[in-house]
C-alpha cells in the first residue's frame, strides 16, 4: 500500500472511531492530521490527531504481510514540565 492510500484509510478509521465514540458532533477526514509517518519495507505507521479536545491521539499501523491496518487509541493522561 502506498503512503497516500495508507494515510487516507488511517484518517477514515480515526473519523469512524471519533464519530462513534464522541458525544456531540462529528468530524470529517480533512480534520484529521498526521503528526508523524514512517514506512519500513511493506509496513507503515502513523500518529494522527484531531481538533476534538478530548486528549486522544491515534496510532495506525499497516501490516503489509497480512494487508491489515490496526488502530490504537491513546488518551493523554498528563503533561509534565521538566525544567532543564
Description:
By secondary structure, the protein is α+β, with helices and mostly antiparallel strands. The chain has one domain. The chain has one helix and four strands; from the N terminus they run αββββ. It has one helix at residues 3-21; strands at residues 33-40, 43-49, 56-63, 68-75. Strands 1-2-3-4 form a four-stranded antiparallel sheet, covered by helices on one side. Strand 1 and strand 2 (43-49) form a beta hairpin. The longest helix is centred in the N-terminal third of the chain and has 19 residues, at 3-21. The radius of gyration is 14 Å and the shape is globular. The protein starts with a helix and ends in a 9-residue tail after the last strand. The model has no long low-confidence stretch (mean pLDDT 94).
What are the defining features of this structure?
84 residues; alpha+beta; four-stranded antiparallel beta sheet
Brief digest:
This protein is an alpha+beta fold and 84 residues long.
User: Quick check: average pLDDT?
Assistant: 94
Poorly predicted spans: none
> What is the gyration radius calculated from CA atoms?
14 Å
Q: How many H/I helices?
A: 1
β-strand percent reads: 35-45%
Overall geometric form:
globular
Order of helices and strands: HEEEE
Strand order of the largest sheet: 1-2-3-4
What's the assembly state of these chains?
single chain
Helical proportion, percent range: 10-25%
Integer tally of domains: 1
Report the span from N to C terminus: 42 Å
Q: What is the SS-derived class?
A: alpha+beta
Biggest beta sheet attributes = 4 strands, antiparallel
